[in-house]
Amino acid sequence: MSSQVLLGQLLLGLINGAFYAILSLGLAIIFGLLNIVNFAHGAQYMLGAFVAWLGLTYLGINYWAALLVAPLVVGAVGVLVERLLLSRLYKLDPLYGLLLTFGLALIFEGTFRHLYGVSGQQYSVPSGLAGGRNLGFMFLPNYRAWVIVVALAVCFATWFLIEKTKLGAYLRAGTENARLLQAFGVNVPLLVTLTYAYGVGMAALAGVLAAPIYQVSSMMGSSLIIVVFAVVVIGGMGSIMGSIVTGLALGLLQGLTKAFYPEASNAVIFLIMALVLLVRPAGLFGKEA
Predict the structure, then answer these.
(1) Average pLDDT score over the chain
(2) pLDDT digits over 149-186, tens only?
(3) DSSP 70-123
(4) What's the pTM?
(5) Number of other CB atoms surrounding residue 108 within 10 Å
(6) Which residues have C-beta within 8 Å of that of residue 100, sequence separation ≥ 6?
(7) Which of 101, 137, 157, 202 lies 20 to 30 angstroms, CA to CA, from 47?
(8) pLDDT bucket at 10, cuts 50 / 70 / 90
(9) Distances (CA, A) of 226 to 55, 124, 164, 251
(10) For residues 202 and 262, which has the higher predicted lDDT (pLDDT)?
(11) What is the mean pLDDT of residues 56-64?
(12) Which residues neighbour 172 within 8 Å (Cβ) at sequence distance 6 or greater?
């Protein structure tokens, strides 16, 4: 195999890894800070793409505005979901939250499938990011390079916010002892709501980034969310850095597998998950109970 083919597959794997990282990070935030397995994450990713497409088609909202509008709109939907539904389940077994969010995912996907079918809708690459550059071993579209840069910037900014700021300290403290934190004057319910909104907003942002690469479809979230859950499990449920590192690493591993043994590229992540669970059930970066 030529080095050009190998490097090309690794770069494509890095692009996939960027989506894995940003989506798994949103899941990790919601689970780590709220203890909710958000099975609606794939549907919220799909909603972000549809908000961008609908905004462009009917309201003339361009791609650059959609990068801000879609996370805000889907985040607002997340606020309603958390306040009206999820807030009633915090004292119950986490299985109830999983079942509720799974039901919400079916509702969202079924609604958009009824309205727009299963065929994808085209979303054009913005003119400022059209074209590409020849790297010698492959032709890299400018837009895909942009996706990698934005995903890495968002992931590490989120890590810095949670791990290195006062707000992040409040968030982490709220998971340990919410009542004590509230005694110090912190509005814990508002903090929880905004955390969930931020997590689903990240899913929506990933949907906007994905719209020009993949077709905007009612099924685009369901085809990706299982892989993203595997990434979260491998990295460690609730681990912020684990989600970032594991998402990028598994994207590269998937690209490497496509270069040498394409038939196994879709299964390699699940094989790694099985091996990690056997050796370290808490995940590579997770904390043992």
Answers:
(1) 88
(2) 999 999 999 999 988 888 888 887 777 777 777 887 88
(3) HHHHHHHHHHHHHHHTGGGSTTS-HHHHHHHHHHHHHHHHHHHHHHH-SS-B--
(4) 0.92
(5) 20
(6) 85, 86, 89
(7) 157
(8) confident
(9) 28, 27, 30, 14
(10) 202
(11) 93
(12) 33, 162
Q: What is the DSSP letter of 55?
A: I
Q: What is the pLDDT of residue 256?
A: 87
Residue 285 lies in a domain: no
Looking at the DSSP bridge assignments, the partners of residue 133 are 140
Please, what's the largest Cα pairwise distance for the chain? 63
Q: 181: which 2 tokens?
A: 């934190």
CATH number at 40 reads: 1.10.3470
Quote the CA–CA distance of 217 and 20 in Å, as a whole number: 18
Q: Which two tokens stand for residue 23?
A: 């989506």
- Element housing 241 (H / E): helix 240-260
Instruction: Answer yes or no: is 288 within a domain.
Output: no
Is 101 contained in some domain?
Answer: yes
Residue 286 lies in a domain: no
pLDDT digits (tens, 9 = 90+) for 99-111: 999 999 999 999 9
Number of independent structural domains in the chain: 1
Of the CA atoms within 13 Å of residue 203, those in its CB half-sphere come to 34
Pick the closest to residue 155 from 94, 202, 103, 207 (CA basis): 202
pLDDT of residue 137: 67
Distances (CA, A) of 15 to 137, 200, 246, 287: 16, 21, 14, 28
- Mean pLDDT across the stretch 229-244? 88
Domain membership of residue 194 as a residue range: 3-279
